[in-house]
């Protein structure tokens, strides 16, 4: 980078004052400052874009590594499952192919659980009508307009 000390800046200011003149110097200085600010923003944007692209490349590399690791883990699990099923099939064929009587030592599985299918509406329907009226249980559906008309305050003449 270019190193500007106080003496160099004073020399540049004196030359600019002589060359440009005192009337136009503030406007030129403002324009130069504005252009330098734009240049700095542009450079910072370019740096940020480069950093984002580098981070994106690193994330893509990590993604590839994770995908290969997951693929390898899936393959190893599939191999283990395959070997376990082969062992199970071999054991099953040894047991079933031995010619022994299968009815000996056979215990049937217990029946699976079935929900009793109780109907809550029946219990509710068994409630006496007088009790429903006393507790305020609704017995009939009512449309919105009918409900509004029912609960509308009475008109005063």
TrEMBL record:
Membrane protein topology class: Single-pass membrane protein
Positions of region (Disordered): 135-157
Domain of life of the native organism: Bacteria
Key word Membrane present: yes
Any one Pfam family match given in the protein's UniProt record, by short name: TatA_B_E
Locations listed in the record: Cell membrane; Membrane
Keywords: Cell inner membrane, Cell membrane, Membrane, Protein transport, Translocation, Transmembrane, Transmembrane helix, Transport
Subunit annotation: The Tat system comprises two distinct complexes: a TatABC complex, containing multiple copies of TatA, TatB and TatC subunits, and a separate TatA complex, containing only TatA subunits. Substrates initially bind to the TatABC complex, which probably triggers association of the separate TatA complex to form the active translocon.
PANTHER family: SEC-INDEPENDENT PROTEIN TRANSLOCASE PROTEIN TATA, CHLOROPLASTIC
Its job: Part of the twin-arginine translocation (Tat) system that transports large folded proteins containing a characteristic twin-arginine motif in their signal peptide across membranes. Together with TatC, TatB is part of a receptor directly interacting with Tat signal peptides. TatB may form an oligomeric binding site that transiently accommodates folded Tat precursor proteins before their translocation.
Family statement drawn from the similarity comment of this UniProt entry: Belongs to the TatB family.
Identification of the protein by name: Sec-independent protein translocase protein TatB
């Amino acid at each position: 980078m270019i190193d500007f000390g106080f003496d160099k800046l004073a020399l540049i200011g004196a030359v600019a004052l002589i060359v440009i003149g005192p009337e136009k110097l503030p406007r030129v200085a403002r324009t130069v400052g504005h252009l330098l600010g734009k240049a700095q923003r542009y450079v910072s944007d370019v740096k940020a874009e480069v950093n984002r692209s580098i981070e994106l490349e690193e994330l893509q590399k990590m993604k590839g590594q994770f995908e290969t690791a997951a693929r390898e883990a899936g393959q190893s699990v599939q191999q283990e499952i395959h070997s376990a099923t082969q062992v199970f099939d071999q054991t099953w064929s040894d047991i079933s192919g031995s010619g022994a009587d299968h009815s000996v030592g056979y215990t049937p599985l217990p029946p699976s659980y079935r929900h009793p299918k109780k109907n809550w509406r029946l219990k509710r329907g068994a409630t006496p009508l007088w009790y429903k009226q006393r507790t305020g249980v609704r017995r009939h559906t009512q449309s919105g307009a009918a409900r509004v008309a029912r609960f509308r305050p009475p008109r005063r003449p």
